[in-house]
Amino acid sequence: MALTINTNPQKPNGEIEETISFPQFDVVSDVSDHHYITSSFTKKNGRDHFPAGSHKKIMQEWKILEKHLPESIFVRVYENRIDLLRAVIVGTAGTPYHDGLFFFDLAFPADYPNHPPMVHYRSFGLRLNPNLYANGRVCLSLLNTWTGKKSEKWNPDESTVLQVLVSIQALVLNEKPYFNEPGHGMWPGRSIWEKKSTAYNEDVFILSCKSMTFLLRNPPKNFEGFVRSHFRERGHVILSACKSYLSGHVRVGYYLNEGSSGGGASSPGPGGAVDVSEKFQGLIVQLYPELVTAFSRTGASLGSLTEQVKFERKTVPFKGEGVLKQKKEKNTSGIARKVFGKIKVALGLKKNGVIKVNN
């Protein structure tokens, strides 16, 4: 399957625009910006050098990827460097990663498949998942970079690169990434952990949006047209999601194209709105103009979405205000009684706690 990319979106109406096909799997030559280009495990005398078994296995991997990639994953391999591979995963709807693009550079060791491929996440210095570090490290049992059962570890006889990519998409870039961290949600008080998860999703969405602007400024080699086309087509959806999250119409991560929430979305709070932190709202307001500018440069049709967004801070009464008022009134009434009692004693109307009555 291939994606059709519009290479000249800003032509006047009525003219036929140029389009090219972007296959999900393809062999390319430019490997210059690959993370592992300078740390090859396989180069010998200027040429790739693999044992026959490893070479055969990698060719099998190519065939599997070419035939069985899901629609949301695209892969490029290199004709002169079969030890390297690059993949992009499109963030899944119903997660805080929706509509984002997540790039991974892979390198096959010389004894592949005895050991799993090395995987580097192109993070732009942002950590938007417990399993994806800012330095690009990917923690996954299948890669033997994280603990797990034997059945979850790399198996030279059965494991494949396709399994690695699908695992990252399904197990790492998921609906509630907060719980990827060991220990989160393992103790009583589930509602507390859910609140922490919601707050984490807010942070994740902000970082995902930031990575979009970085990608548009510096798209990976061989994916330049794909990146521009993706955000040209999805820019209006991302901005609409920002506005819905900002207003509390939809819980962060659950925006769909029509503006409704996905099946896993929490019900709106009092007043028909989802609770959203002021921190998140403030960051969205700051980031929104950057997204508008970045998407506009791709030729995206944004309409009224180019208007700046804003939010009003909620004025929440101090919870202890009523209690303090009651205490103040109580203290005031107590003082008044004491003063009134002293006056009675001075006038001879009260003595030793007994009020005198003249006959």
From TrEMBL:
Keywords: Transferase, Ubl conjugation pathway. PROSITE patterns: UBC_2. It comes from the Eukaryota. Residues 53-213 form the UBC core domain. InterPro entries: UBC, UBQ-conjugating_enzyme/RWD. One of its GO terms (molecular function) is ubiquitin conjugating enzyme activity. This is UBC core domain-containing protein.
